[in-house]
Amino acid sequence: MSVQSKKSFAAIDYQRCDPKTCAPDTGLCPAVSACTHKVIKQLDGVFESPMIFQDMCMGCWDCIAACPLNAIVVKHVGT
Ligand code: SF4
Ligand code: SF4
């Protein structure tokens, strides 16, 4: 695991994200538990898409590895 620049962070692609597909039994987003920094949360409850507190994202990309639907993408800010 490498921690990258604060200028890169993870973001949810809400067109792809579907907790009913990736976690049909529990509705718990696997990427939430994968994020050891606890910056992804299902604020609206289970079976709802999570959100990422991007200011606190460490850019470790563990969430991307954990999402089976490729619904988490890397965003870059600045140049
Ligand atoms: S971000 Fe990925 S793992 Fe999490 S609920 Fe959406 S599709 Fe599932
Ligand atoms: S890149 Fe790492 S710190 Fe950022 S949301 Fe994903 S798992 Fe959490």
UniProtKB/TrEMBL annotation:
<dbReference type="Pfam" id="PF00037">
    <property type="entry name" value="Fer4"/>
</dbReference>
<protein>
    <submittedName>
        <fullName>4Fe-4S ferredoxin iron-sulfur binding domain-containing protein</fullName>
    </submittedName>
</protein>
<feature type="domain" description="4Fe-4S ferredoxin-type">
    <location>
        <begin position="48"/>
        <end position="77"/>
    </location>
</feature>
<dbReference type="InterPro" id="IPR017900">
    <property type="entry name" value="4Fe4S_Fe_S_CS"/>
</dbReference>
<keyword id="KW-0479">Metal-binding</keyword>
<keyword id="KW-0411">Iron-sulfur</keyword>
<dbReference type="GO" id="GO:0046872">
    <property type="term" value="F:metal ion binding"/>
</dbReference>
<keyword id="KW-0408">Iron</keyword>
<dbReference type="InterPro" id="IPR017896">
    <property type="entry name" value="4Fe4S_Fe-S-bd"/>
</dbReference>
<dbReference type="GO" id="GO:0051536">
    <property type="term" value="F:iron-sulfur cluster binding"/>
</dbReference>
